[in-house]
Amino acid sequence: MTEQPRPRVLIVGAGAMGLVTGYILTLGGSDVTFLVRPHRAEILSRPQLLYSFDDHQLKIYKDYKFITDPAKMIGANYDYILITLDGHVLKSETGVNLVKTMGEAVRGTKTRVLIGTVFIDLRPWFLETSGINGEQVTTCQLIIHSYEPKNVTCRLHEGTDPKLLQQADQAYTDKLGVGFFADDSGPAVAEGFAKLYNASGLSKCDIVSPEQLAAMSVPNFPLLAVSDLLGWPDYEDVDPNGELWTLAVDSVKDIQGLKLLGQAGQKMIESTTAEGLKNQFVGIQKAMLPMDWPDFNRYHHGGKVNVQDQELLQTCIAYGEAEGKAMSATKELLRRVQAKHQ
């Protein structure tokens, strides 16, 4: 019997989301290639070291390929393409050109695309820009948290091996139950990719509706914004009745009421309280240990993707205003974040 060919997956970007997802897919039997900018080629030319906060071991990841020219996507006929760029980068001139090249590569083929970019309502823009058939595209989100310990310093907690941590190219944790969500806006894409991801046995991919995915992720951004304004505190120390936290809670409700979040968002409004949101974030912080979640967010949302986060809130405001909503809390929260980062 001839062996079945390994599923071929192209991952656009080899940063935190890209490398860890690639490692999981490779363990599950996929043939992974990364598309990276030329300056990343030297780093990927050697095996990547991944530190797990879950078992405190260093994983060696070397069974992958990489390319630096987007035009090489054309004619390659990958089974899946996973985009891991942030929203600001994806909508930049370089990102738009990349999406158009991807469209040229995917149109008329069986390649399936997953948009792993955290933003709001990105799929319609992507379909229009790329010209790819909607049945071939879905949206997803990596829940695993990962960062570069050589470039980012987070507080160390009991159990962490600092020597192994400092050797790692990425350090990650998968403590929140599900490591990856795909929505069913492209059902065949989500189902097929989930099989590849779950084949590793290392992490779990679940499939949800687009409204559920948006409702799970987008309302968190006001809380990340207010965490920035508060200086990234431990969530146990947050005053749920304080002026800033109250403003953020009102913004969360602004966003939960958007039509984009559907009934899932409407139901969440009924149970959303200042104390409840604080307790939710306290629970996440504890679950993530020994990775320090506030320090991770300080680096990630306070710096690396801060422009994307501001643009996401701005887009929420625009959607709300188009629905006749004032979005006053979200506007004030965004104004304060913008003032801090000027």
Overview of this protein structure:
The chain crosses the membrane at residues 9-29. InterPro entries: KPR_N (IPR013332), NAD(P)-bd_dom_sf (IPR036291). Keywords: Membrane, Transmembrane, Transmembrane helix. This is Ketopantoate reductase N-terminal domain-containing protein. With 342 residues, this protein is of the alpha/beta class. The chain has two domains: 8-208, NAD(P)-binding Rossmann-like Domain (Rossmann fold); 212-341. Helices cover 46% and strands 15% of the residues. The protein is built from 15 helices and twelve strands. The chain has helices at 16-27, 41-44, 87-90, 93-106, 122-130, 162-167, 187-198, 210-217, 221-229, 243-256, 262-271, 274-288, 293-304, 306-322, 328-340, and strands spanning 8-12, 31-35, 48-52, 58-61, 65-67, 80-83, 112-115, 137-142, 145-147, 170-173, 180-183, 205-208. It has an eight-stranded mixed sheet with strand order 5-2-1-6-7-8-11-12, with helices on both faces. It has a four-stranded mixed sheet with strand order 4-3-10-9. The protein is globular. It starts with 7 loop residues before the first strand and ends with a helix.
